[in-house]
Design brief:
This protein is α/β, with parallel strands linked by helices. Helix 1 crosses helix 8. The protein is built from eight helices and five strands; from the N terminus they run E-H-E-H-H-H-E-H-E-H-H-E-H. It has a single domain, classed as Rossmann fold (3-Layer(aba) Sandwich). A five-stranded parallel β-sheet has the order 2-3-1-4-5, with helices on both faces. The N and C termini lie close together (about 10 Å). The structure holds adenosine monophosphate. The site of adenosine monophosphate has 16 residues, from helix 2 and helix 3.
Length: about 190
């Protein structure tokens, strides 16, 4: 079972991914977390990408592709991955298809959490107070929302055509979203 989870910043992708990981015994691959680790560890890559991330833009497709190939090629995670924050461009979606083919895997379901810009702004401000992420402030949140809308729409269309896409109301209570997602995953597990 491989899952993709989509949603703008503050949609609850991280929260829902952690729930799915626990319930269905999967591994979370969050490109945002991997990139933030690089920044926190002050690696060469981290120094290169910190200003891009802090401005709400996407880092280059090549950088994230290298990070995810390391994960997909690892047998521990084979057919047990939830992709959180990847793919975010059409190019990345095609790259993911190629990598999955190469390592004899596939995507089983794509979950899209829908939330409004107003909710995103509110949640980001709450998260800012708790987690102190450098890219969590109102201006950058708006920029990240716009970046998401612009770059992810074609990706969402791509998965719509393959009939894998399920749209979920990300404004609902966390527990309601948990149950909806569980139902969808149980249904495809058969
Ligand atoms: P996230 O934690 O998923 O909201 O990601 C935080 C930031 O990391 C994004 O705003 C981007 O700058 C960068 N990032 C994460 N995933 C990707 C990706 N798949 N492609 C390009 N940039 C990414």
């Amino acid at each position: 079972m491989n899952i993709i989870i989509f949603g703008p910043p503050g949609a609850g992708k991280g929260t829902q991914s952690k729930f799915i990981v626990k319930k269905f015994k999967l591994y979370q691959l969050s490109t945002g977390d991997l990139l933030r680790n690089e920044i926190n560890n002050k690696t060469k890559l981290g120094l290169e990408i910190s200003s891009i991330i802090n401005s709400g833009e996407l880092v280059s497709d090549n950088i994230v592709s290298n990070l995810i190939e390391k994960f997909i090629s690892n047998d521990t995670y084979k057919n047990k991955t939830i992709f959180d924050g990847y793919p975010r461009t059409l190019n990345q979606a095609k790259n993911l298809d190629n990598l999955l083919k190469k390592y004899k895997q596939k995507i089983n379901i794509v979950l899209k959490l829908s939330v409004s810009l107003e909710t995103v702004k509110k949640r980001i401000m709450e998260r800012q107070a708790q987690e102190k992420r450098a890219d969590d402030n109102e201006d950058v949140a708006i920029k990240r929302y716009q970046t998401y809308e612009k770059s992810c729409e074609p990706v969402i269309d791509y998965y719509k055509h393959s009939n894998l896409l399920k749209v979920i109301n990300g404004e609902a209570e966390i527990s309601e979203i948990n149950s909806e997602i569980s139902g969808l995953i149980d249904a495809i597990k058969g």
